[in-house]
Amino acid sequence: MNTHAEDPEPAKKFARFRKPPNLTLPGCWGALVLSCLSFTPSLLPRGGFLQGLIWGIAAAIGYGLGVLAASVWRAFADREPRHPKRMAWRTFLISAAVLLVVFFGLGQYWQYLIRGMMGVQDYNIALVVLSPVVAVVVFGLLLLIGRGLRALYRRTADVLGRRIGQRAARATGWILVSGLAYLVITGLLLDGFVGIANQVFSLRDGATPEGVHQPASTLRSGGPGSLVAWDSLGRQGRGFVGTGPSEGDIARFTHRPAMEPIRSYAGLWSSGDTASRAELAVKDLDRAGGFQRANLLVVTTTGSGWVDPASVDTFEYLGGGDTATVAIQYSYLPSWISYLVDQSKARAAGRDLFDAVYDVWSKLPQATRPRLFVAGESLGSFGGETAFSGEYDLRNRTSGTLFAGPPNFNTLFREFSDNRAAGSPEIQPVYKDGRTVRFTNDPAAGAPPADQPWTGTRVLYLMHSSDPIVWWSPHLIFNEPDWIAETPGKDVLKGIVWIPFVTFWQVTADLPFSTGVPSGHGHKYKAEYVDGWNAVLQSPGISAQDLDVLRNVIAEGG
């Protein structure tokens, strides 16, 4: 007798294993609609891989919405699901083939226009061709995750239904599965990712940037006589104190004798907590004579401790070198990770550093103490804002402020923008007639309103129309923002539209690549600091020709 006889069960099991997961027709229509819409333009040019990622996410969301819509419709119609006819599937497949080809072509055209506006030359046609593959993989993974959660819910509800009522079992099952998914994502996955990132970037923090050497000047932290050890400054701190314009560089720009700028910094290894780190940096600033300079700048760094050299270099050139700058590090992580986990550290760093400086500065004779300025880019602007309660506090306790690329969740930025004058656009709002706080996406053209006086302390926000850091918000999921509803900015495609769910993921995908565009676009601020700081500092004797020269110097990197 043949023991391998006709037992159909293994064959059936193998067939079921090889069979692809069933897809519902309503879900496929939803996936098709959002897939087509995923090709619409956002703020920055997208490569093929990124388009595939957005495409796959949009398709998965559309599939879920389609299934949900069909379920709601059946509930109102009080009927069970029906198998679609073959003609219905044929109609869908033909429509999908036509629409995807059309929108894929339109997407490439829109991306061509955006690249042209920004002067982006990179275009990898191989990745564009592979984008459908990326989309299918992403869609498949998200679909499997969704079905896994659904299966877990059904199993949980089934077990609970043996002990409690069916309605209570279903509700409790959803709560338990949703809570478990939340804990896994925010706990296990996010904490694990952050832990690994901390280890990786802490090792990188021990390195010194190429071409940077320990300063021989007593006017720099880590140099002779400094209270802060060179080895404790971290990678970004060593880059900050070990670079910058020299006394000779500044003298050649100003055509008169200049001073060597002072730079004070404390890294994560310099002291155990933010408050003591700020105190140490201020003591080293005082030791170097920072409070005897004409202009004193307090900078809140980005996540990794980075200080934008374009901003500080410009401040030092326009100040004739009679300047001092102080900053501290509060994290190893780059800003895009710090957005998720280090917002509280950025708040503490901005508040503690400014308070430590202000405590010493405010006790100096009013006639001899330096003008006090504040600056920060990106997450640094978020931290820098936290030292102040509002417009009057900025006006009364500083001589000027320059924030670049403020994240949309900045407290004061949102307060000023949300309470802007009627008729002023979100991309360039006017707050209280511009008496203290102003906004500009092109500082060379000025900061509106041009017909109103701007006296006393000047607070200026630099923000590009195409900067996703400025415009990203969870509200994009369900609400159309004013910056899309109103006339778009000069480097944003006029055809941009808001689409629920889709626009949120498009702008989210723009975030990691926000600096991968030429200066003057996205989150790339460089030569704009020249006109921005010139407006805030109001330095005498600076001509239009001087500003042209300095723009070239800063654009070339120093």
What's the SSE blueprint?
Blueprint: H1 8-18, H2 25-37, H3 48-77, H4 86-118, H5 125-161, H6 166-205, H7 234-241, H8 247-254, E1 262-266, H9 274-287, E2 295-300, H10 309-318, E3 323-328, H11 335-341, H12 343-361, E4 371-377, H13 379-385, H14 391-397, E5 400-404, H15 411-418, E6 437-440, E7 458-462, H16 468-471, H17 482-485, H18 502-510, H19 528-537, H20 544-555
Parallel strand pairs: 1-3, 2-3, 2-4, 4-5, 5-7, 6-7
Helix pairs in contact: 2-3, 2-4, 3-5, 3-18, 5-6, 9-12, 10-19, 12-13, 19-20
Give the low-confidence spans.
1-8, 10-20
> Number of DSSP strands?
7
Order of helices and strands: HHHHHHHHEHEHEHHEHHEHEEHHHHH
* Whole-number tally of structural domains: 2
How much helical structure, as a percent, in the residues? 40-55%
Alpha carbon gyration radius? 28 Å
| Protein structure class | alpha/beta
Strand content: 5-15%
Largest sheet: 7 strands, parallel
Identify the strand order in the major beta sheet.
1-3-2-4-5-7-6
How large is the count of helical segments? 20
Keywords: Membrane, Transmembrane, Transmembrane helix
Organism: Streptomyces kaniharaensis
Domain Alpha/beta-hydrolase catalytic: 262-548
Transmembrane segments: 23-41, 53-76, 88-111, 123-145, 171-190
What tags apply to this protein structure?
558 residues; alpha/beta; 2 domains; 7% strand; elongated; disordered N terminus
